[in-house]
Amino acid sequence: PLVLGIETSCDETGIGIVRGRTLLSNTIASSMDEHARYGGVVPEVAARAHLEALEPSIEQALAEAQVRLEDLDAIAVTSGPGLAGALMVGIGAAKGLAAALDKPLYAVNHLVGHIAADILAGDAESAPLEYPTIALLVSGGHTSLLHVRDLTTDVEMLGETMDDAAGEAFDKVARLLGLPYPGGPEIDRAAVGGDPQAIRFPRGLSRASDMAKHRYDFSFSGLKTAVARWVEQQEATGEPVPVADVAASFREAVVDVLVTKALAACKDLGVPRLLLGGGVIANRRLRDVALERAAEAGVSVRIPPLSLCTDNGAMIAGLAAELIASGRRPSTLAFGADSTLPVTEIQVAEREAV
Ligand code: ATP
Ligand code: MG
Ligand code: FE
Questions:
Q1: How far are the Cα atoms of 71, 137, 165, 275, 345 from residue 157, in angstroms, in the given order?
Q2: Can you say whether residue 223 is alpha, beta or left, with left for phi > 0 and alpha for psi between -120 and 50 degrees?
Q3: Residues with CB in 5 Å of ion ligand 2
Q4: Which residues does the UniProt record annotate as the domain Gcp-like (predicted)?
Q5: Which residue of 51, 117, 206, 264 pairs with 315 in a disulfide if CB–CB is 3.0 to 4.6 A?
Q6: Would you say 138 is a known binding-site residue?
Q7: pLDDT digits over 96-146, tens only?
Q8: Pocket of ligand 1 (CB under 6 A)
Q9: Which residues surround ligand 3, an ion (CB under 5 A)?
């Protein structure tokens, strides 16, 4: 099916068009610059930016895909989780388009979209996604380990972060190192030439006693505090802060704990497959370490291309195309923004069978 996906859960206005698993276009307009000076996303500013960006973005995505609105088989939209006002702008546009064009509408989960992004990477050479798979979702607002039996019907949560998300930790540590928002790519850049073993920062919930109770859970706030304290102490000595070493060591701590716990889940559940998704998966070191350690463990890894890791509309369209292919009915128009939609709810407001 030819599907147009609308993503407005945070500060990216993403419009993606797919035909089945084939990506046709993926336009992203970001209001990031407007938030940068506040050090984080301002919800009202984001919602307003979506309102302005939606129409030109849809035009551009259609032009790049070389399709017309009338050609579409369905519209897809993120219904949550995310910023309520931002979500509402995308949902309003999607409902309007679906009604005006008389096309089915699929309201889908943003987090499952992140995990589904890898499907679109599928070309003739890459093997189709196999089930079950363990999925590691690492984004700005979430850090979760999932047992995925089928992306369209069965996503089980094994564990999640008890405090900050990994992306949030990147953003906060970047700020205390004086680097701009968003912090992930900045830390990646700052870590070039740094020694990842220079400072041994804590790996949250990784001690034997924690692993008994929180085997698949994460904690990053202690790490953030440890970095802050280390930097303060360094500054107190009057010596310059070795930013590259701090960035590399911090990044190493995050990557280590993410990969260790994901591979533990693969081993425990006897699932030799790992699927990665979410903005933090854009991290170079995370991609490298996951590939290396999974290979040692005999686990195959699927990693979406960089352009599909952070928020985009293509992953939303792609997930809807999967739902359609597996026979799911469209959503009713009676759904709204759900800022805390759990990852287990793949689609919302599916129509009753008649
Ligand atoms: P959620 O998906 O949980 O609702 P979100 O949509 O805001 O949150 P994403 O867009 O998936 O999050 O990811 C954004 C996050 O990814 C930010 O915290 C950003 O710092 C982080 N990120 C982006 N690139 C990198 C990178 N190269 N290394 C580490 N983190 C990165
Ligand atoms: Mg974002
Ligand atoms: Fe996201």
A1: 37, 10, 15, 14, 11
A2: alpha
A3: 10, 12, 311
A4: 23-317
A5: 117
A6: yes
A7: 999 999 999 999 999 999 999 998 876 655 678 899 999 999 999 999 999
A8: 9-10, 81-82, 110, 114, 139-142, 167, 170-171, 182-185, 188, 278-280, 282-283, 310-311
A9: 139, 311
ipTM above 0.95, yes or no: yes
User: Which letter does DSSP use for residue 141 in this model?
Assistant: S
The answer to whether 88 and 18 have CB atoms below 8 angstroms apart is no
pLDDT digits (tens, 9 = 90+) for 221-266: 999 999 999 999 999 999 999 999 999 999 999 999 999 999 999 9
| Distance of alpha carbon 274 from alpha carbon 134, whole angstroms | 5
Q: Is 171 annotated as a binding residue?
A: yes
Task: Name which residue sits closest to atom 19 of ligand 1, judged by CA.
Answer: 184
Find tokens 């709810």 and name the residue: 345
Kindly report, residue by residue over 191-210, the tens digit of the pLDDT.
Answer: 999 999 999 999 999 999 99
Question: Is 26 assigned to a binding site?
Answer: no
Sequence-distant (≥ 6) Cβ neighbours of residue 7 within 8 angstroms: 13, 14, 15, 16, 77, 78, 90, 110, 113, 311, 312, 313, 315, 316
Q: How far apart are CA 285 and CA 138, in angstroms?
A: 14
Tallying the residues shown for the chain, one arrives at: 354
Please list, in sequence order, all residues whose beta carbon lies within 8 angstroms of the beta carbon of residue 207, skipping any fewer than 6 positions away: none
How far apart, in whole angstroms, are the C-alpha atoms of residue 175 and residue 177?
5
The best mutation among 7, 146, 192, 310 to test binding of ligand 1, ranked by most ligand atoms within 8 Å of the C-beta, falls on 310
Round to whole Å and give the CA distance between 133 and 300: 10
DSSP assignments along 173-209, one per residue: HHHHTTPPSSHHHHHHHHTTT--TTSS----TT-SHH
Is 283 annotated among the ligand-binding residues? yes
- For residue 167 the two structure tokens come to 């992306």
Q: How far, in Å, CA of 116 to CA of 95, rounded?
A: 23
